[in-house]
Amino acid sequence: MLSAEEKVDRVQHSVDYIEAHMFEPLDNKSLARASGLSLYHFQETFREITGCAPSAYVHRRRLTLAAEDLLGTGRDLAVVAWDYGYESLPTFSRAFRRQYGVSPGRYRREGTDFWFNGLQPFRPEQLLFRQTKLDLEPEVVELERTVLRGAMRESSYGDQLNRDRFVATREQMESCDDERSIELVSVADPGSVLRRSNVNGFLVRAEELRGGTPHPEYRDVELPGGRYAKFRHRGTRAELAWTNNFIWNEAESKIDGKLDYLAPMRIRAARPDAALLDDELDVEIYVPLRA
């Protein structure tokens, strides 16, 4: 029986093959040969390690590259569709809309993208993390409406837990006497449905601020009550981006409801004595479910 490391290695061979032959016909038999596994064991192992079928991975990757093409070139939509394996523009448009929520034409006009719906190539360390450290079985919980206050910053999603930035923000919040009340919140930019960046903040419950004049950069953020999918991340700060990537790509199949990617998502310390500024994190991730 193959170890987790050996399974990841076999799957990575097929991922590398996919990336090298993205513009060619790809089928499970050729991918199985690249992995060194039988067809049956390849399909089972790929799904176990990545959380998706090989064909789904190829589909998501091609649409991700097509989306990058739409923003980076002025090529005709029909040409882009053909390059990524779609025989007609309507077929490409339907597939694109299912992944990104908008038509290819609107996507190009808006000049931006959904960070959560694109899929970057899997890497061995990412797959091993998923296999050995990540639990994608969420708990559905009810949360009350909460108002948080703090400094918000426009940033890329990958920078959302930049330690230096949040250390500086924490030092500004001298009026807060209870570090355990801190929550890190990711909030979609309300000015755009499609965006490359989020507004992120290091916030505390507004009612727990003690005296003093609020910092001029502070703002209140309301987190609506309702049903949330609760996940747990135990790992490094860098690995948190992997956790969120797997959540958005896999979690909906495991819960009764759809993740609401336009509503605020909460990230907070899992234990009262834990810190969000540590390099090794133990945090809870609350993703709202659509009503």
Please provide a written account of the structure.
The chain has two domains: 4-124, Homeodomain-like (Arc Repressor Mutant, subunit A, Orthogonal Bundle), CATH 1.10.10.60; 139-288, Regulatory factor, effector binding domain (Multidrug-efflux Transporter 1 Regulator Bmrr, Chain A, Alpha-Beta Barrel), CATH 3.20.80.10. The protein is 40% helix and 21% strand. It has helices spanning 4-20, 28-35, 39-50, 54-72, 77-83, 89-100, 104-110, 124-133, 163-172, 237-250; strands at 139-143, 146-156, 183-187, 197-205, 218-223, 226-236, 265-269, 280-288. Helix 1 crosses helix 3 (39-50). The longest helix is centred in the first third of the chain and has 19 residues, at 54-72. The termini are far apart. The model is unreliable at 190-196 (pLDDT under 50).
Strand % is 15-25%
Flag low-confidence runs. Answer: 190-196
Q: What's the main sheet like? A: 8 strands, antiparallel
CATH superfamily of the largest domain: Regulatory factor, effector binding domain
Q: What is the helix fraction of residues, given as a range?
A: 25-40%
Order of strands, widest sheet: 1-6-8-7-3-4-2-5
Oligomer: single chain
Q: Please, how many domains?
A: 2
Order of helices and strands: HHHHHHHHEEHEEEEHEE
Question: CATH architecture of the largest domain, please?
Answer: Alpha-Beta Barrel
Radius of gyration: 21 Å
What's the mean pLDDT score? 79
Question: Briefly, what CATH class of the largest domain?
Answer: Alpha Beta
